[in-house]
Amino acid sequence: MITRNARQSRDMEQMILDYGGEPVQVPLMTYEPVLFDKNDKCQLLNDIKSSDWLVFTSGNTVKFFFDLVDPQKDLHQVKIAAVGVKTKAVLETYDLKVDFVPNTFTADALADIFCKDGSKRGSVFIPMGQLAKAKLKSQLTEAGFKVKTKVVYNTMINKASQQLLTDLVFGDKIDVITFASPSAVTFFTELLKGYDYHNLLRNKVIACIGAVTAEQAASYGFRPSVVPEHYTGKELIQAVAKFYMEE
């Protein structure tokens, strides 16, 4: 089961097919842009202009941010940091240079290096979704950075997938469930709220894209069996394949 939407998971689906598996698409969330009026847009551009760094934590953030901002006219020599090679790749589709990507694809790793590297001091602007945690902002603020954030999109539960999800879980039609974000875990449990499904999942492989997602899964009583070393969809499917090969 792939819990991302189709646009984000084409490569994952193809990899599963290449390994001889059967991908089942159950998108658990949808995304909506935050509407900015003229004053909101003006404030956003001023925040960017006054920043030394723009920090992007996901491809979704990049997409919705540049629906509001012209990447060639509005960035004013600001440096760009990305959490992960996939986010970097999305930024590069806008012909932008990415100045920094941490070796470990987490916001914690980015914050750790920023806090230790004196050359990265200054002001930071972080566009985000409404469900993003405030930890990155807190870490950078405590280290002396001037940090501003702005919500540019909302992540919503996809209730249209509820019946399909219920049929798959209670019909025992899946072997692996992949989670690519903590929100996916939360929405999975919300869509099955009121159902006794934990026993049905005990023999399923729970695969999480990273440590934070795995922690969220564990907090809901799941036991993640697969967490890749590098936090990308490609690495996640490769790790699932490796898990089965080593069984």
Account of the 3D structure:
- It is built from 11 helices and 7 strands.
- Helix 6 links the parallel strand 4 (123-129) and strand 5 (146-157).
- The model has no long low-confidence stretch (mean pLDDT 92).
- The chain is an alpha/beta fold and 247 residues long.
- The longest helix is centred in the C-terminal third of the chain and has 14 residues, at 233-246.
- It has helices spanning 6-18, 38-49, 59-65, 85-92, 107-116, 135-142, 162-170, 182-191, 198-201, 211-219, 233-246; strands at residues 29-33, 53-56, 79-82, 123-129, 146-157, 176-179, 205-208.
Which short descriptors sum up this protein?
globular, 7 strands, alpha/beta, 247 residues, five-stranded mixed sheet, two-stranded parallel sheet, 11 helices
Q: How are the secondary structure elements laid out?
A:
Elements: H1 6-18, E1 29-33, H2 38-49, E2 53-56, H3 59-65, E3 79-82, H4 85-92, H5 107-116, E4 123-129, H6 135-142, E5 146-157, H7 162-170, E6 176-179, H8 182-191, H9 198-201, E7 205-208, H10 211-219, H11 233-246
Number of helices: 11
Strand % is 15-25%
Radius of gyration: 19 Å
Helix and strand run: HEHEHEHHEHEHEHHEHH
- Strand order, biggest sheet? 1-5-4-2-3
Poorly predicted spans: none
Main sheet summary: 5 strands, mixed
Span of the ends, CA to CA: 20 Å
- SS elements, strand count: 7
Oligomer: single chain
